[in-house]
Amino acid sequence: xxxxxxxNDDRDASITDPILEVRNATVKFGMDRxxxxxxxxxxxxxERNEILGVVGESGSGKSMFASAFxxxxxxxxxxxxxxxxxxxxxxxxDVLGLTKSELNQFRWEEIAMVFQGAMSSFNPVRKINTHFVxxxxxxxxxxxxxxxxxxxxLSDLYMDPERVLRSYPHELSGGxxxxxxxxxxxxxxxxxxxxxxxxxxxxxxxxxxIISLIEDIKEKYDLTIVFITHDLPLVVDLADRIGVLYAxxxxxxxxxxxxLEEAAHPYTRxxxxxxxxxxxxxxxxxxxEGSAPDPVNEISGCSYHSRxxxxxxxxxxxxxxxxxxxxxxxxxxxxxxxxSEAVPMPNDGSGTETGSPDSDQPxxxxxxxxxxxxAGENPVLSLDDVExxxxxxxxxxxxxxxTDPETVRAVDGISFDIYENDVVVLVGESGCGKTTLGxxxxxLERPTAGRVEYRGQDVWEAKETGGDIPFExxxxxxxxxxQDPGNALNSYRKVFSSLEEPLVRWYDDLDGNxxxxxxxxxxxxxxxxxxxDYIERYPHQLSGGxxxxxxxxxxxxxxxxxxxxxxxxxxxxVSLRVEMMDLMLELQDMFDTSYLFISHDLAxxxxxxxxxxxxxxxxxxxxxxxxxxxxxxINDPQHPYTRxxCWATPELLTETDRTDDSPMxxxxxxxxTDPPSGCRYHTRxxxxxxxxxxxxxxxxxxxxxxxxxxxxxxxxxxxxxYWTSESIVED
Amino acid sequence: MKDxxxxxxxxxxxxxxxxxxxxxxxxxxxxxxxxxxxxDIEETRxxxxxxxxxxYVYAPFSIIWDDWRARIGLAIIALxxxxxxxxxxxxxxxxxxxxxxxxxxxxTWEHPFGTDRMGRDLFADTIHSTxxxxxxxxxxxxxxxxxxxxxxxxAGYKGGITxxxxxxxxxxxxxxxxxxxxxxxxxxxxxxNPVLVGILLSIAAWAGLARAIRSQVLTMRRESFxxxxxxxxxxxxxIIRKDILPRLMPYIVxxxxxxxxxxxxxxxxxxxxxxxxxxxxxxxxxxxxxxxAGAHYRPGAxxxxxxxxxxxxxxxxxxxxxxxxxxxxxxxxxxxxxxxxEAEAEGSEDVEADNTGMMKQV
Lengths: 731, 362
Prior knowledge:
The complex is a heterodimer. Chain A is α/β, with parallel strands linked by helices. Chain A has an 8-stranded mixed beta sheet with strand order 6-7-8-3-9-10-12-11, sandwiched between helices. An 8-stranded mixed beta sheet of chain A has the order 18-19-20-15-21-22-24-23, with helices on both faces. A 4-stranded antiparallel beta sheet of chain A has the order 2-1-4-5. Residues about 1-10 and about 350-370 of chain A have low confidence and may be disordered. By secondary structure, chain B is mainly α. Chain B has 13 helices and no strands. At the A-B interface, α1, α15, β18, α17 and α18 of A face α1, α8, α9, α12 and α13 of B.
C-alpha cells in the first residue's frame, strides 16, 4: 500500500494468465469543433476465464472500449495502442495488426460480441434459423454440426430450440431475442465474449434471469466474459472484477466485493450511493452533482476533479496515476485513502449485514403523519374493475373470416384509488399491461369495461354526454409524462414552443411575454440555467435528463391533479435517477399533484413511495396481484410474484448475503392472448398447488392497522383449501 | 439545484395573486411558485410580428442562403418572377411583322432572341409567356399540395370513418388515368384562365401525395408527443399544424417542387398537342407553332424551338435546386446549428449514437 504511482507494466501483478492485454488504447474522433478522445490511454489485462464487469455512465466511452477489442471502431475514429490476444494454444496475436480476412476469422471465433438493442440486431424478414446458418457459413463451419451446437446452447438458455429456430424475430419477446443473440455469439465457440449492455432494454426480472444464465453458460463453455453496463448493482454479483470507467478512462479496477465494500475512488463511492436499491435508507441516496466532461476539452489533472468533494489544486494539475490499494485493486485518485471519510457510505462501520432485507433494523420510514389512506376520504381518481382488451387485428383477411379475432387482455379487472397528494407505483414485467392500465387511468385509453372516475365523475361519460365535471377540467387534471423523453418532445419544436403549448391552451389571459417569463422561471426552478439559453434549444441539444425535465414541466404547467409517469427514469443513467425522482417529488409538493408512477424497478418504486408514504402495486398479466406500503411489499411480500421481483432487483450485497436461486419456474411470461386459468402466476409460481390452476384468488387484506397490504394469493389466507391441495411443482 | 427553491428570482414578480385555478405554494407563503410568474412588460403587436418574422422569414432564409444550390435556385426563380411581374411592363408585347422573319438570336440588339416566321420578336414572346406559365405553376402546385396535405393529414390523424371516406375519395382519384381525364376536361371546359388550367392539370396529381402523407401521419399519431398534446387537450387542428406538419414539410416541399415542374411539362405538352385552347402567348404555344412550321428540320428556324425549351429547362432546374435545399430549412439540427453559429456543440451523444448505429451493422 504505497502511495506511489506505479508504471503500467507491473500494475496488474495479480493477473497470471491473461487472455487479452490492452495497452494504451486510445480512440480519437476528428470533429468539427476539434479532436475528441473517446477512449483515453486505457490499459487493462483480462484474466483467462474471469468475468470482468465494466461500469460507466452513458458517454463514458464504454462502447468504444468494447469495439476496441474487435478493432471495430467506426470510420472517422482511429484506434491506437496495443491489443494482444493469447489463445489457449499459446502464442500471441496482435489484434490491431491483423489483415482484413484474419480479422474476420478472429471476430466471432475468438472474440464474440453481444450488442445492446437485440431488436435491431436481427434481420426482420429472416427466420432465426437463417441467422444461425449464415453465421456458420460465413465462417466456413459445418452447418449441421454448428446447428447441433446451436440447439444445445438454445436449450441451455431455457428456450425451445425447434420453436425458436422456426420463428421470425418479431415473434420472440425482447428477452428471448436477447438470449438468441447470446446463443448466436456462442455458436462459433469463441473464447471471449464481450457483452455491451446486453440487458439494458429488458425489465429487471428478465435482466436478472439472463445474468444468472450467463454464469452457467460461462462455466459450461469455458468463457472469458467482459460485461459492459451502466448499472453497477447488476454486475456486482456476476463479475469477478469490476472496472469503473469515467471520462474515457478507468478510474478504479478491483475485485467486485472489495469495490463494493471499500471503493477507493470518490466517484465509485458516489455512484454506489446514488443507486436506488431496496435496502439502503432512502435518505442516504444522493445524486452526483455536476456532469461528465466533454470529450473535446482536454482535461488537465484528474478528470473527476470538477465534481469531486475532496479535489484540491493537485487534482487540477496532476493526473493521478494508478495507486495500488491491494494486490489486485488499483485506483486513480491522489487521495483515495481519505475517500471513505469524504464520501461516507451508509453501511460503513456497521459491516455487511445491515443490508439484508430480513435484518431487524427497520427501513427508515418517514413518520406516517398523514392520512391513513384506507380511511374514508374521497379519492381523486378511482378505478373500478377496469378492463382493456385489444383485438389482435393483424390476421384480418378472407381466409380468417370465420375465426374469432384473438383478444389480448392487457388489463383485466383492476381496481385501485389515488388520493390527493398520493403516489401509487405500478411495478411489473414488460408486457404485463401496466402502461395500458396507466393510460386508461388518465383517460387516454378507453377501457372496454369498468369505470374510471375522477372525483366521482365517470371520465368517459363526461366526454360523451357531459357530467357534473366538464370533460375539459378532467382532461386538464390528468396528465402524462412518457417513458422515452426523446420521443415525448417533438424534435421539430424548440423547448419554448413545446412548453408554451399548455399555456396557450389553458391560460388565455397570458400574453407572449408572460408565457416566456413563466417558462423561464420554471426552467430555472428545475435547475436548467441559464433558461434563456435552454428555451431556444431543440430537444436533440438536451441531455436525456434535461429532456425529461422539460417533459415534466410541460405536464406541470397544466396544473394537473394526477400525473401518469410512465417509467420516467428508466431511460436515464443510474446516477441521475435519484435526482430526477427528487425533482418530481419536489414539484409534487409545489403543485399539489398525485403521481401514478410506472416502473419495472422495485428499487425506484421503493425510493419514491417511501419518501411520500405511497403504495406499490404489483401487476402481473393484466391483474393487480398485490398492493401495499413499500415496507410491507419489500420486507414481507405475500405474493410469490412480488417475491420474484424483489429477487430480481439488483442489490449492493456481497456474495454471502445473496440468494441465487430464481424463485420462478419459468423465465418467460405466458402469452397474454391466452392467459393461464385460475391464478395467472401458477405456471411460474414455485408454490403453486392444484387449486391455483382452477380458482382465481381474491384480493385479501394482510396489512395491519398502520400498514396497508392486499394480495391476491391463497397463501395469504390461513384456512384455505390451498394448504391441503396437491403441489403442481415438478422438478 | 437542491436549494433553487428560494424566493423567485428578481426577473418577475407575480402580479396576479387572485389566481383562479393557480396552485398555492404547498409549504406556506414564503415560497413564490415559479408557476405564478408573470412578466411586467406587456407584449405589443410589434413584438409578435417581430417574432413571426424571425421564425418564418429570417431563420429560413438565413439557412438556405448557406447552400449554393439554394442560392442558384433562388436566383433563377427570382429572375423568372421578375420577368413575369416587372418584365411584362418593360417590354412591349410583340406583333406580327415586328421585324423580318427568322432573324437569328443575338444578330441584332433589337431582337436579341431573333424572330419567328411571322417576324414576331421571340424575346418579347418569351417574356410575355412567363407570366401565365408562372400563374399556372403556382396554382397547380398549391392545389396539389394543399388538397393532398389536407386529405392526407386529416385521414391519417382522425382515423375511423373520416379516414374511410377520405381514403376512398383518394383511391378514386389515384385510379383515374390522369392524362386522358385532363384531355377530356380540357376539351369540355376549354379553360382560358391560367389558374384554371393549373388546377385542371393537377386534378389527379394530389391523390398520390395524400396517400403517402396519410401513412406517415398514421405512425406519428402513435408517437408520445402527439399523445402528450392530446392529453393537454390541444385541438386536433393545432396538433396537425404545430406537431405534425413541420415534420412533413421536407416531403411536402419536394412534392410541391415536383408538382410545379409537372405542371409546366404537361401544360406545354397539352398546348403542343393543341388540346388546350390558345389564349395568351406561352412557351407551349410557341413550341407548337415552331413545330408546325417545321422548325425542327430547318436550321434557320431552330432557335424558334430552342428558346422556349431553354426557358422551360431553366425554371425546372431552378425548382429542383431550390427544392433540394429547402428540406434543410425544416431540419431541427440545421436550424439549431444555425442559431449558434457553425461551431455549435454536437455533444458526445452523437458520437455514441453513431457508434451504436455502426455496431448493429457489424
